[in-house]
Amino acid sequence: MKKLKINYLLLTLLVLSISLTSCRKDDGIDSGIEEVPRADQQPIDQAVLDTYLSTHYYNSGDFVGNPNPSMYDLVITELAEGESLPADHTMLVDDIETYGVTYKEQDYLYYILRLNQGAGDDMPHFTDDVRLNYEGSLVEDGEVFDSTVNPTEFDLAGLIPGWSQVIPKFNTAESFMFNGDGTVGYTNFGVGVMFLPSGLGYYSAGTAGIGPYKCLAFKFDLLQSELNDHDGDGIP
């Protein structure tokens, strides 16, 4: 009986180990991955971003004269070898804005495609709460790993570092109104796309649906922001 109990315990531990390993692989995260020094990973990420931005274009003509654009209007397409750039489209590399930041003693470049600045009075601080729509995808293959169905609220201070760099560079919506179906409509809000190296994303940790060392792209509609009192002292 004692031997039977020991065998059952060993079998249970084996099944549990297999289950945990399978879940991590499903999430695209390797168990026990050794963290690469940031100075070694940064040039790899930079090459990925440079290649992507120089080989993809977007429907820029759809944003010219558009009084109320949205991230949902944006279509990014890879320019096939030998293909000519379609009319009313622009290569990403020709329209992006380039910014630099030092994070954890490593210098990084990140990129913004500014589709609409937004006409609201507010520009969020990096510690504020924001309400927005977004869609996140992997730069390498364009796979969408997360998106909103309805506007979602976030504390910028609790997100990956790239967000606290990019979102404060846009204005919120000029106005909003309550619709008859209970939803809220927004007018002339900030619209853009951020392209981030893994060092300003999840780096070696990854997360559900994102493996380690992945460069990320996020489309977003910035709708509203609100001051956040993180330490509860009554002063935002």
Give a topology summary:
Blueprint: H1 2-26, H2 38-55, E1 56-58, E2 76-78, E3 90-91, H3 92-95, E4 97-103, E5 106-116, E6 129-138, E7 144-147, E8 152-155, H4 161-166, E9 175-178, E10 184-187, E11 190-196, E12 216-226
Antiparallel strand pairs: 1-2, 1-3, 4-5, 5-11, 6-7, 6-8, 6-12, 9-10, 11-12
Structure commentary:
By secondary structure, the protein is α+β, with helices and mostly antiparallel strands. Helices cover 22% and strands 30% of the residues. It contains four helices and twelve strands; from the N terminus they run H-H-E-E-E-H-E-E-E-E-E-H-E-E-E-E. The strands form three sheets. Strands 4, 5, 6, 7, 8, 11 and 12 form a seven-stranded antiparallel beta sheet that branches. The protein is globular, with a radius of gyration of 22 Å. The model is unreliable at 1-30 (pLDDT under 50).
- Helix count from the secondary structure assignment: 4
- Helix and strand pattern: HHEEEHEEEEEHEEEE
Please give the number of β-strands: 12
Low-confidence stretches: 1-30
N-to-C span: 65 Å
Mean pLDDT: 87
Share of residues in helices: 10-25%
Biggest sheet character: 7 strands, antiparallel
Short description:
With 236 residues, this protein is of the alpha+beta class.
Provide the descriptors you would attach to this structure in a database record.
seven-stranded antiparallel beta sheet, 236 residues, disordered N terminus, 12 strands, alpha+beta, single chain, three-stranded antiparallel beta sheet
